[in-house]
Structures are given as C-alpha cells and as structure tokens.
Amino acid sequence: MRVLTVIGNRPQFVKAAAVSRRLQEVADEILVHTGQHYDDEMSAVFFSELGVPRPSLELELGTGSNTEQTARMLTALAPVIGEHRPDVVLVYGDTNSTLAGGLAAAQAGVPVAHVEAGMRSFDRAMPEELNRVLTDHLSSLLLCSSDVPAEHLAREHVVGDVEIVGDVMVDVALLVQPRAREDDAPLRDAGVQAGEYVLVTAHRAGNVDDPERLRRLVDLLLALPCPVVLPLHPRTGARLDAQGWLDDLLAAEHVRLTPPLGYLAFTALLTRARAMLTDSGGVQKEAYLAGVPCVTLRDTTEWTETVDAGWNVLVDLDRDAALAALDRVVPEHRPMLYGDGRAGERVVEALVRRFG
Predict the structure, then answer these.
(1) pLDDT, tens digit, for every residue of 144-198?
(2) 198: Cβ–Cβ under 8 A, 6 or more apart, which residues?
(3) Do residues 181 and 267 make contact, with C-beta atoms less than 8 angstroms apart?
C-alpha cells in the first residue's frame, strides 16, 4: 500500500506523530509538507521533538491569502500525486493543506482518507469550516474522533465510509504531557509560577485581521487580573505591529510575550496554567486533555463536547464574559471524550483494511 500524506501546520505535525511511524511499518508513506507553517518553531521543531519522520517533500508554499495558498498547493500537489500514484491520499483536520490535498487527489481519481472528519462549528465564515466540509464530501474514508462528528456526517449523507477511531492527539498528549509537567524551564523563561498565569494563543483571521476585533483582543488581555503568557503567532505579531498596538502589550507588566513555541515547551506551559485562553480549535482540546479550564475567544467551536462537559466556555472577545469565565468553578469530573490513546493504531488499521 502506498500512502501520500499531506501536512502543513502545527496540529497536523502533532497528529502525524501518532500515525506516520506506525504507518511506515506496514506501508510506503510519502510525507509531503506544504510549508503552510514556514517559521521554524511552527514547523521543523515538531519533527525533532515528536519524532515525526522527515518529509519526503517540502513545497514551501506558506504565504498569501487562503485562496492564493490553496491554489498554489493544488498546482504543486497535482504532479506529485501523478508521479507517485498512491493508493490513497491521507489528510488531517481543516487547513488549506487539507483541502488542497483532498481536492488534488479526488481530481486525480485517488481515494482520500480524512483524519478528524466530521468536525463542525457551523460557522461558514471560518475558512476552516469550508475546508473541512468540502474535504469530508470528497473523501472515501472518514475517520472520526468521537460519536458527535460521526452524527454530523450521517446527517449530511456523505458518500464515504465513516469510522470512529478516537482522536490521534490523545495519543500524543498521553505520551508528552507527563514529561511536560516535569519541565520547569518554559515557566522560568516566562517568569511565571505554576497555577498563577493564563496561557493565551490568538491567530485566527476573524480575530486578528479586523482592526476593531484585534483592539478588543488587546483590551481583553490588558484587563486580565493575572500574569499572561502569549506565544506570539507570526500573523498576530504582524497585525499588532501594523496597528501600533504591540507596544501596548510590551508595556503591560503582567503580559509576557514569547516567540512561537515548540510542542514540548507549549505543553509544559499549558499543563501548569491556571487557564487557557485561545481561538484555536486544537488548543481547546489540548487544554481539555490536560485538565486545564479553557476560555475560547470565539462564539462557536468544533469541540462542543468540551463545552457540554463544563471545561470550555465560549466568550468571543467579550472582556467581562472572559473575566467571569476565569472565575468559574470547573466540574470535578472530566470524561474521556476522545478515546484511549490508540487512535493512531486504529487509523493505520482502517487504511490497511480499506486500501492495503
């Protein structure tokens, strides 16, 4: 069995860490990195930290708008698929790389397998929502993290086969989080104490590209009553700098800005945080797996189970709602929503069963 895997950003590197080594024991995998994340801390460091096999091909296609990026990826991936003639193209999640890989494969008549299929925020203004919906409807094998996304796919009458395999990020979290909890260096570097700070990530276009919403984000961070650690995504840093608001955060005594972090350093900070504030889908789930309360800077989420369980609150960019969410009491119980840490194994088994 020959599998061509398309990855391009941080969450996909983490997911591939749970699958690729197992897959390469039983199949010929061609691992293609589109370059959607081209900063070293957003990309290359994950290969060294998580043991993801080095890509067979790096396309370096990271810049431009969503449309421009997706178009360049389609143009670049089509001959790669034609050259290698895989039995299946494997894609993860909901990025431009996901859609480009799936569409290029489908147009070439190659089956598509989609890991993390069926996720829905029901917000079509999100580029990620469009990517995941389109990818699901062109996929032959849809691999879901839990019952909820499988139910979404059933209601949409997708034509591919649906399997619930669990969440591959659980596999990685169970492996990495115990080690990360013992690593104090990232906390020392940020000048914070365990349990006393809030970890923040913000990068979505809907929050940082609109100056009005970006200012609301800055005001929310300035209002937080405890130390804030903000690993600054390149996109967010550029938008803040362009508006002249980066200095506002740099001048705030309680805000610690850091460069983008590798997975281990980020997880060390996450596992010891008082709370997580984020607009990232994947980080919401990582916070849940770490047992850290999450405040989501959006009004929709794909990970509705974390909200239903009481560990995640959607506040958009409402400062008062965010402050109230930080003071809430989290439930004592945290159910195992996303599997037992063997999702990567089940993904490989499903691929072999269907395409081997």
Answers:
(1) 999 999 999 999 999 999 999 999 999 999 989 999 999 999 999 999 999 999 9
(2) 224, 226, 227, 228, 229, 273, 274, 275, 276, 277, 326
(3) no
Residue 214 resides in a domain: yes
Output the CA–CA distances (angstroms, integers) from residue 177 to 170, 183, 266, 271, 287, in the order listed.
10, 10, 10, 7, 11
Alpha-carbon distances of 343 from 31, 253, 299, 339, rounded to whole Å = 19, 42, 29, 7
Residue 203 annotated in active site: yes
Residue 108 lies in a domain: yes
Domain hosting residue 280, numbered range: 175-326
Catalytic site residue from 33, 152, 203, 233: 203
Q: For residue range 101-112, what is the model confidence (pLDDT) as tens digits? A: 999 999 999 999
Q: Do 62 and 79 share a structural domain?
A: yes
Q: What pLDDT, on the 0 to 100 scale, is given for residue 13?
A: 86
